[in-house]
Amino acid sequence: MGCSGLFILCFVLKVAHCLEGLGGGGSVEITHITAILGEDVDLSCSYLGESEIQSAEWKRRINSENKFQRLAGIVNGKPFSRSYISQPDSLTNLTVKMKVTSVEAEGEYICEFESLEEQYPHSVYLTVVARPDVQMLVNAETINGSHYQSVSCSAVGGRPVPQISWLVAGRPPSNETFAVGVSETVHSNGTSTLSSILRFPTHLQDEDSVACVVQHPTLPVPKLTAVRVETYTRPNVSIKAEMVQQGGSEFWVVSCISSGGRPDADIALALNGDEELQREDKTDSDMQTSSVVLPATVYEGRNVTCVFDHPKFTHQVSRVITLPSFYLESGVQLLKSELGSNSDDFQGTEPLEVQEGQRDTVISLQVTGNVPHYNVTCKKDDGPLPDGVELVGSSLTVRGPVEHRHAGLYECFFSYRHVKATLKFNVTIKPQVIQPVPPTVRVDLQTEGGHSVIECSAADAVPAAHMSWLLPEGVSGVSWFNFTSHNGSHSVRGVLLLPACSPWELTAECVINHPAFEEPENRSIALPLCARPKIAINSSTEWKDGEKFTKVDCSVDSVAPAATIRWHVGNVDNSISYLSQTDVRADGSVSARSSAHVLSSLYSGQNLTCTVEHPSLEAPEERTIQILVHEAPLLSVSLVRQQDSPLWLAVCDCRGEGVGADLAWVLPENTKGQTSQHSEYEGRVTKARLTYQFPLALHEGQDLTCAYRFEHGATEKKTVHVPRYHISSVRVLNRTSPLQSRYGGEPIAHRLALQERLRNQRVLLRVEGNVPEYDLICKRSDGSFVQMDGVAMVFRSELTERDEGLYSCRASFYHHTATVNIQVEVTSEDEQLALAAIICISSASAILLILIVTLWACCKGNSSSQYKKKESLSALTSLMQEPGSPEVKKPAVTENTSKEYTQLVSYSIVLDIKSTV
Description:
This protein is mostly beta strands. The chain is built from four helices and 63 strands.
C-alpha cells in the first residue's frame, strides 16, 4: 500500500511539471544595447519557454501613438528582413545583425513571439553613439617680434560630446606658458565636433612635441595623439680671423660664427665696439657666418667685436678678437750639404768659419716673426755678392768649392712694409790640409731585371781610391764607376752586371787601390746557383650551352728563360687545345702559364698531365690532375599538410649540377591542379622544386609520381603515397541509454542524465578512426556552441532545466566527418529516488504478470496470443544526423512503412518518463 501511494505521488508531480512546461507561461531574455554609428549591432532575443511559437518578429516604435515599423522576423514559416538587417535563425532565436547608418536609429525596439494562446513582447532601447575622428593642426605666427605656435586638436563627429585634454612632457600644460581655448560645433546628423586650441610662445617651450588626449565612451582607452612643434635651440657663438691676399695686398677676414642655433641669431660686428663695418652674411646648413674684410696693416693691433642676440639669450653675448702686430727677428745658420747641417746659430757679427774647398755650402738666414711674407737683399763688404754666391729664397748658397775670396762681412736686409730687420755675419775661411784617409769598403749583391747587380764602394777617402773588377776566365759582364766628393773626401762606386744566377759556382772580385793601403785590397762575392722552377697546377669547372667544361691551369715560375709546357691525357699524347703566355717580372724572374680547356664528359675520370721542361731541370717534370666524374641529379618527393589552407602540397625536389626545368608530376587522367616550380643556385649546383596543390579528397589513397627527364631522353621517377583516412564514429564515454526513432530500431541519439545544480560536469567523447588529428565542436539545438575541454563538453556553471535539450557533436578532418547526438536531461536527487522506486515496482509487477501469463498459457495449451511490439516515441524538436563518414547513408523510410508506423502510433499510448538509467 505504501509503494502504491508513493507511485501516485510521483505521477502527480510529473504531470504537474509537464503542464507547467506546456502552459501559456513563458519568458523572453533580452539585453540593453549600445550601438556605434557606422558599425553593426546585434539585436539578441530568444524564447526560452515551452509553448509552440507560431510567428516572431522585430519591430520599432515610430512615435508615442504606438505606431510600429516591422523590421525582421518569421511569419508563416517564411523569414523577412529589411536591407540593413539580417534574417533571424529560427522562431525561438530572433537574433539579428543591424547596420547603424544614422543617429535616427536610436529608439525603442520590440521583440515579440506569438503562440496560439498568447503573445510575448519585450522592448529594449537602442542608444546610438558615434566614435570621433581626431585631427591635429599646427599653426605659427609672429606678434610684436615674438613667435607663437597654436596646436589645434579636433574630435570630429562624436556622440556624446568627447572630452579633450593636453599633455606636454607627460604633464598638463602650465597656465603661465600655455593658453587653452575650446569650441563646439553641432552637426545636422546628430553628432558634434569639439575643438581645443593650445597656444604658447615658442621661446618659452623646450619640448619638441605636445599630445592631445581624447576621451569618449567609444574609445576603450583615451586616445593620445602627438604632434611635432617647433622649438628654439641656444647657439654656440665664436669669432676667428684669417689672412688672405687680394690684389697683392694682405687682408684680415674676421668672421662671427653662430652654429647649432634655432632660429638664426642676430649678429652685429663692430671695430673697438663703436664702429659699424660692411659685412658679408652667409648661412650654410646649421652654421651662420657674418664676415668683414680689413686691410692687414691699417687694423694692426686693433680689436674687433661680434655681438650676438638670440631669443634663448637672457642678454646679448659678445666675442672680441685682437688683430696681431707684425714683427721680424733674424739669425744665421751654416748648412754643409755634404756633411749635413750643423747646430750652431750665429747672431750679430760673430765669425762664421767655412772649410776651404767645401762644395755646395748653404748659409741659412733664420727669420722669425708673424708677417705673412718678407723681402730679403744681401751684400758683402758694402758691395754686391761675389761670383758663385747666390741668394736662393732665404739662404746664401756657394755653388763651387769655397775659396778665400768668399771671406768677408755679409749684411742682409729683411722688410715687410713698415717692419724691417737687419742681419750681419762675418765669414772666415779655414785652410784645407790634405792627409790620406783610407776608404770604407763595402760589397753588396742584388738581383734586378733578371740580372745580378754587384755593387762595390770605397767611400770617404782622401784622395779618391782606384777600383777594378777581377772575373773568372770565360765570364764577361757590364761595369761602370761613379765618383762623388763631399767636404774634401771622395767616394767611388763600381757596379758590375752579371746573369741573375749560374748553373755552377762563380766568384767575382772587387780590387781597391789607395795610398793608405800597403797592398791592394780585394773583396769577393759568390753568385747564387739557379733556383729550381716552382710548378703549380689547379683546375676549375664552368658550364656553357648546357655542357660542363674543365679548365686546368699549369704555371711555372723560374729564372730566364721561360719554361716549356706540354699537355697529354693518361699515358698517350693527345691533341688538346691550350693557351700559353709568359710574363717577365721586375726581379728578372719569368712566369710561364698554360691553360687547357676540355669537355668534362669526354674525359670524365681520366688524368690530365702537364709536362715542364727548363734548363735548370735535369729531366722534365710532370704534374697531374684528375677530371671529376659528372654526377646525376638527386630526386626526392614528399607530402606536406599546409597549416593555413585546406589543400595538401606534394613537393618534388631535384638537386644537381646543370639541372634544368624538366620536372613534371605524373597525375591520374583528367586531373587538374595548381603546380609551381622554383629554382635557386649554389655555385654550379641547381636546386629545383616543383609543387602540386590538391584537395585531399581528389587523390586520397592514390600514388603521385614526379618525373625528371634527362637531356639524353632517360627519365627518373619518385612516387609518394597519399594516405586514406576515415572517421567511423564519435562515441560518448559517459553512461547513456539509446533514444530510438519511431520508424526504425536504430538509435538516433544518446540519452544522458546530468545532476541538477552541480558545477563542472563533463561529457566525455572519443573519435573512432585513423585520422592524425581532428576538429571537434558541439552545439545546442539553437545553434549556440558549447565550451570544450579537449574531447569533453564542459558545463562550468550549475545545471538547470534550461540546459536540457538535444546537443550535436561533430568531428571533422578535411572532408571526413562524423556526428553524435546527445539528449541531455537534468534530474534532481528526489526525482532519481522516486524513479528508482517506480522502476523497482514496475519490474516486480512485470515479473509477476509474466508468471501469471505463462501459467495460464500452459493451461490453455492450444490458445496463444500474439502481441505486437510498440516503440516509444521521444519528444524531439529537431532533425538529427547519423554518425559516421559521409560515405555511409541510412535507408530512406518508404511510404508503406510510414503508413504502418502511423497506424501503430494511432493506437499507442506512450508515457515518457525521464530517467538516469
